Amino acid sequence: MNTMMPTEEDVLSVLRSVIDPEVGMNIVELGLVYNVDITDRKLQVDITMTTPACPMSEMILEDARSTLKALAPKDAEIELSLVWEPPWSPDMMTGYARQHFGWDEPAGQTDQ
Predict the structure, then answer these.
(1) Whether the Cβ atoms of residue 2 and residue 63 lie closer than 8 Å to each other
(2) Which of 23, 29, 49, 77 could bridge 97 with an S-S bond, Cβ 3.0-4.6 Å?
(3) pLDDT beyond 90 at 3
(4) Class assignment of domain 8-87?
(5) Comparing C-alpha atoms, which of 37, 43, 42, 83 is closest to residue 61?
(6) 37 backbone dihedrals φ, ψ, rounded to 5°
(7) pLDDT (tens digit, 9 = 90+) per residue, 40-52?
(8) In this prediction, what percent of the chain has a pLDDT beyond 90?
């Protein structure tokens, strides 16, 4: 059993296992995780969706909650908030995600 609170890196690492099934990419690479706040016994994570009409939002949130519960100590409070500000845009994705979807050229390549 884990007795220490996780680090922000730990949280982001495990949240990479939470996939948005509509696009097949994890919520961290998509830029859907807006904030991670860790205190003595509380883990607060703010998550958004690509659109307020996302039909998979409840599933994504439940997957994130389950993943965080498995990471945090048993007595830790986990607060997962669905937020809409700022509105999500593709610019919030990591370079890896943008490349995956063909929205960026691979590093080191330029137009000639």
Answers:
(1) no
(2) 29
(3) no
(4) alpha beta
(5) 83
(6) -125, 125
(7) 999 999 999 999 9
(8) 81
CA distance 60 to 63: 5
Is the predicted pLDDT of residue 110 greater than 50, yes or no? no
The whole-angstrom separation of Cα 35 and Cα 56 is 20
Using alpha carbons, select from 10, 30, 35, 48 the residue that is nearest to residue 95: 30
| Residue 67 token pair | 């993943």
DSSP bridge pairs for 45: 36, 80
Work out the angle at residue 26's Cα, subtended by the Cα atoms of residues 22 and 29, and round it to the nearest 5 degrees.
Answer: 120
Going by C-alpha positions, the residue among 39, 30, 41, 23 that lies closest to residue 97 is 30
Q: What is the pLDDT of residues 61-94, one digit of tens each?
A: 999 999 999 999 999 999 999 999 999 999 999 9
Rg, Å, the chain Cα set:
15
Amino acid present at 96: Y
The domains of the chain are located at 8-87
